[in-house]
Amino acid sequence: MSKRTALKLRIQQFFAQLTQGCGRQHCPNENCASNSTIKQLSCDEAAVQAIHLASSKAELCSENHRGFSDSIKQLPDNLGSDSLPSSSNTQQVKPDSENPNDDIDMLNPDYSALWKYCTTKQKIHENGYIPELKQAISNIFSNSKLLNRYEKIFALKTDLREEIAQGTETDKQWDSSAKMSVGSSDDQSKEDTVVEKETASEKSVSKKPDPQTVPYLPTVDVVFFRTLFARISEDAVLETVLHESLVKLVNLAEKAICTNPNEYKSDPNYLNMIVILLECPLLQSPESLEEMFPKFLKIVAKLPLAANVALAHHWSRYDGAQLKNVIETIQQLIAYQVAMHYLDQTDLVAHEDQRIIDASKCLNILFFASILGGEVDRTVDEKGAAEAQSMRNAPREEEADAQLGTELKLTKLDSVAPLVPRVEFVNEALNDVIKIDKDYANYRVSQQGSNKFSFLHYQFLLTTLNKTTYLFYDNRVRIERRRTLMSSLFAGSAINPFLKIQVRRTHIINDTLVQLEMAAEDLKNLRKQLYVEFDGEEGADEGGVSKEFFALMVEEIFNPANGTFILVEESQLFWFNPQSFEGLMQYKLIGIILGLAIYNNCILEIKFPSFVYKKLLGRKARFRDIKDLHPVIYQSLCSLLEYTGDVEDDLMLTFQVEHQDVFGCTHHHDLKEGGVNIPVTKLNRQEYVDMYSDWLLNTSIEEQFNAFLGGFELVLSQSPLKYLFEASELELLLCGSEHYDFNALEESAEYDGGFTKDSQTVKDFWSVLHELSDEEKKTLLQFSTGSDRAPVGGLAKLKMILAKNGPDSDRLPTAHTCFNVILLPDYKNKKKLRELLLKAIKYSKGFGML
């Protein structure tokens, strides 16, 4: 029998002796369960004690008093020979740099020493084993192979975790986490997060993949290492040893991964090192931001896709607060890098900074981990998607790299409630220094197969404002590319770069419908810059005329008298009229108008419920969305789900719903075949709520919405819109914000024609503006910019210009809405300025040549 096998058997015998005893009554051995004076040990405590007794060659009770063969079977499976410590003369494990190819001898006392350090309640100085601990820390944390092979050697179960957690307040905080179910691949996934009153069908789409099917999944007892790191931090000597070991380990691992990115394939536990190191506070300390932490992120960034998938699955089982701490540390590194290199230098570009690139790739894994670990809804509107596809005459260009999401079968649109709010992934400091024109150029090049890095590949880092700028570049590049192509094909011919329409104010809907129908015969026309002329008016459209055109179109489209949309009184929001007399072409036109508004960077005053924008991105509305549009119906359905009485006899509902159209006529609809004869009971009420919600928000307006979606896709089918924006951002992009900061507008304003910030007329203007009512301020915005909404980024992004328009006179102020310019005569006093300004904004419709 080999020494290894003999030692394993010895430990098994001690474990049986500690848990079941030797069978002798009143056994004098203080390490035997038959000794009535010793306390009963848990399995984990007995396992640790058995290892200690075997390695110290303690006395074993006579085997004649009890058959140990049966007792040995009770030994925990994870207490195998790989977890046994060696005798004190075992050869010390050398760091990777000295002997990288030797097999790691797991019969060493290092993990045993660390385990003892974590589980003891005595101070290390009392036990006198600081040298042993220093050596153990140095051996393990400077050797990736030994660290990787941890593999839950000393797996902590719940009862022992509670004992360890009594050590420090930090430990208690870690151990109290509701979602700290992290360990080997056979651990159960944590329960799905379910929002209040979520229906059964919504729960079914939120289930997580079975972790057993994920290759290379880390097998780390996170609680053990968190406890260990917390204990080490209490002693400066041990903390110094740990820091020196980590520096050595990270340097060696960085060199190894650069040489062989697929090293993880030869070591099934390679990712253990990544998980363990990321738990170490020293790695995330400010002192590590300069060297050690960036090198660690480089190691993670160089891991292949399969390893990224495994890490995403592992981190998806963390608590949101724990995941957020890691994200914040990486964000601090990015902010530090920006502050050190990009605030004062204009010749450097952030998308070429390797540290920022590595950090972005690591955040990408955490971003998908946050989605995967939260509430997920992967259902899509198949009919709407088919309708949208039928409207396209060309395939979509390949979007930014989404390999990780593809492997996880996940997109950001699937996320309902992530573990970490998405705003935590946005880095404001980075967004301030991104040179969008150059980064967008990298994005276009990368679509042709290049390895160029672009932040568009990691859009979760970007602010909505920067995403909007990227979209603007994309729109303009496509326009210019088509213009160049046409010029080369038809040399010498006059190429019209605009989608030009001429409309009468009194017939704006019909005129627009006819001309857009003609333009849509060639979809490329819809992707030209819009140029509008109002019949009988001289205004040249440099953006301002188009703004008023869109405003008038929206006003007419949403006029309740037309019956295209219904105004829901309780929410004051518009909804599709399922009994509209308007043809589907009308809804298609409205979709085109919305697409053109985005394409031409115009804000519309549209009052749709927020979930409409989710539907525009291909997702179905669900029960929870009813709350926005029909709050009374939502509360009624919630009451139905919570009702404790006899649902069938008391409520007398069936699977047939009754509704009225705009003319007051009553209609009936069966939610399922024969619904009028199917009563709603306690057992099927969940199904009733699901089907009613789907009918109310999806199927009842399916034809109208799909036509609307088809028109929208006609314009934007080749745009990166769906990749860039979430539903809430799409709403902000299209409708602007109703949050107004007129102080920011004043601070960002510019002056021309002789005016300065200190001019008396300028001071009077701002004084008058701040005294106006909220409605008058919005009217002033409409007068000067063509929209009464704040754009993405707030009023400061308007860059309003106040220009002097001659000396004092009785002329009214005028505006160039194309450029956000207000022309003011140099009025002699504030009273006159206020009187004429209010008169100008009240009668501000129409265009003329000044």
TrEMBL record:
Its main location: cytoplasm. PROSITE patterns: HECT, PROKAR_LIPOPROTEIN. It catalyses: S-ubiquitinyl-[E2 ubiquitin-conjugating enzyme]-L-cysteine + [acceptor protein]-L-lysine = [E2 ubiquitin-conjugating enzyme]-L-cysteine + N(6)-ubiquitinyl-[acceptor protein]-L-lysine. Transmembrane segments: none annotated. The keyword Transferase applies. It is an enzyme of class 2 (transferase). Keywords: Cytoplasm, Transferase, Ubl conjugation pathway. Residues 187-210 have a biased composition (Basic and acidic residues). It is found in: Cytoplasm. Residues 72-106, 167-210 are annotated as: Disordered. The keyword Transferase applies. GO terms for biological process: protein polyubiquitination. The active site is at residue 818. Its EC number is 2.3.2.26. It comes from the Eukaryota. Residues 80-94, 175-186 have a biased composition (Polar residues). Pfam families: AZUL, HECT. GO terms for cellular component: cytoplasm. GO terms for molecular function: ubiquitin protein ligase activity. Residues 522-850 form the HECT domain. This is HECT-type E3 ubiquitin transferase. It comes from Ciona savignyi.
